[in-house]
Amino acid sequence: MNTDTPITLVACEIFADELQAFLKKSGLDPEVVWLEAALHTDISKLKSKLECTLSAVADEQKRTCLLYGNSCLPDAKEVFSHHGAQSFSACNCIEAFLGREDKQKFEAEGCLIMTPGWVRVWPSISASLGWDAVDVRMNLGRYTKILVFDPGINPLTDEEVINFFDLTGLIVETVPLSLSHFDGLIANLLSMART
Predict the structure, then answer these.
(1) Range of the structural domain that residue 109 is part of
(2) How would you write the pLDDT of the chain (195 residues) with one tens digit per residue?
(3) Does the residue 2 lie in any domain?
(4) Pair 11, 83 in one domain
(5) SS3 readout for 5-39
(6) Is residue 1 part of a domain?
(7) How crowded is residue 96: how many other Cβ atoms within 10 Å of its Cβ?
(8) Are residues 79 and 49 in the same domain?
(9) Is the separation of the CB atoms in 183 and 22 below 8 Å?
(10) Against a cut of 0.85, is the pTM above it?
(11) Phi-psi region of 26 (alpha: psi -120 to 50; beta: other; left: phi over 0)
(12) Are residues 106 and 88 in the same domain?
């Protein structure tokens, strides 16, 4: 393929606000295929959906970039490579936003790290897992609090924060997020795809 070949981004919807902000800033307009974040609750469904989507994009002779972490699937690197798709080096979306060191630091403090996007898709994730409020609290009981890193693009409302606290029983703290790390990863990924 030459460098004029169109690029398609296959992305988890968890990146929707941040990726759209990056594309607007950069003036780029690639095709984006969004996949539901709740697919993460069933690895076989996620793998099947990714493989089907990647095959369809390859059939259209497009370069493919993936906005999925290398730990989203046990064999992510092999799946991505098999379909000739470029991916970024982060293990998951939180690392893509924060970087490895900050992610590990907050996790070591017992924090569950989220973004506004994760809070908003949590109901579909809970439904996919078959969890009620008791299940949510039991499964999140190991955390001391929830840190929601917010770049300010589509902030959570007070009602969303209160509802999430009511569901989880954990303190929900919002922390400003710079998108410089994420933007750098995306710029690098798109640059690699063009070469």
Answers:
(1) 95-176
(2) 345 678 999 999 999 999 999 999 999 889 999 999 999 999 999 999 999 999 988 877 778 899 998 889 888 888 888 888 889 889 999 999 999 999 999 999 999 999 999 999 998 899 999 999 999 999 999 999 999 999 999 999 999 999 999 999 999 999 999 999 999 999 999 988 877
(3) no
(4) yes
(5) CCEEEEEEHHHHHHHHHHHHHHCCCCEEEEECHHH
(6) no
(7) 23
(8) yes
(9) yes
(10) yes
(11) alpha
(12) no
Give how many domains the chain has, as a whole number.
2
Q: Would you say residue 29 lies in a domain?
A: yes
Q: What is the 3-state secondary structure (H, E, C) of the chain?
A: CCCCCCEEEEEEHHHHHHHHHHHHHHCCCCEEEEECHHHHHCHHHHHHHHHHHHHHHHHCCCEEEEECCCCCCCCHHHHHHHCCCEECCCCCHHHHHHCHHHHHHHHHCCEEEECHHHHHHHHHHHHHHCCCHHHHHHHCCCCCEEEEEECCCCCCCHHHHHHHHHHHCCCEEEEECCCHHHHHHHHHHHHHHHC
